[in-house]
Structures are given as structure tokens and as C-alpha cells.
């Protein structure tokens, strides 16, 4: 059940991260959704596993912060990859 909460939060985190991140990343709505979901999962994993911070609830303040941070990291990497391909 926890993974479903992180996926739902990822939809929101992707939109927030895209609004925060400067410049044009391209990709469109589906890339934003995908990066948001993956970023949420990565952020949740980083927060709980590597840093030992309790992100027991995806919709807690730490959960939201780590989801957005994870999405920002993936949007940054996405920008590096697509910039080289273009």
C-alpha cells in the first residue's frame, strides 16, 4: 500500500518539481508524470534507506520534501541526457 501512496505523491511532486526547476526541460506531461513518480520513489528510498529519516507516510512533510527533491534530481538528469541527444 505504501508504494501506491508514493506513486500518487509522485504525480504531484513531478508537477511541483517542474514548476520549481528553471528553464525548459521539454518532455511534456507524460515525461513529467514519469519523472515525478520515479523521483518520488527515489526520494522516498533515499530518505528512508540512506539517510535513515522516517518517511513512513508518503503524505507527511518529509515524504513530500523527499519526493520533490527526487523529482528535481531526475529532471536535472533528464535535462543532461536530452541536451546531449539534441
TrEMBL record:
It is a multi-pass membrane protein. Pfam families: Transgly_assoc. Keywords: Cell membrane, Membrane, Transmembrane, Transmembrane helix. One of its GO terms (cellular component) is plasma membrane. The chain crosses the membrane at residues 29-47, 59-81. Its main location: membrane. The keyword Transcription does not apply. It comes from the Bacteria. Belongs to the UPF0410 family. This is GlsB/YeaQ/YmgE family stress response membrane protein. The lineage of its organism: Bacteria, Bacillati, Cyanobacteriota, Cyanophyceae, Oscillatoriophycideae.
Amino acid at each position: 500500500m505504501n508504494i501506491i501512496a508514493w506513486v500518487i505523491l509522485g504525480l504531484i511532486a513531478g508537477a511541483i518539481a517542474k514548476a520549481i526547476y528553471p528553464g525548459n526541460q521539454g518532455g511534456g506531461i507524460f515525461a513529467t508524470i514519469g519523472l515525478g513518480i520515479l523521483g518520488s520513489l527515489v526520494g522516498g528510498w533515499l530518505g528512508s534507506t540512506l539517510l535513515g529519516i522516517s518517511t513512513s507516510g508518503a503524505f507527511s512533510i518529509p515524504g513530500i520534501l523527499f519526493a520533490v527533491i527526487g523529482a528535481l534530481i531526475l529532471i536535472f538528469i533528464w535535462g543532461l541526457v536530452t541536451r546531449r541527444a539534441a
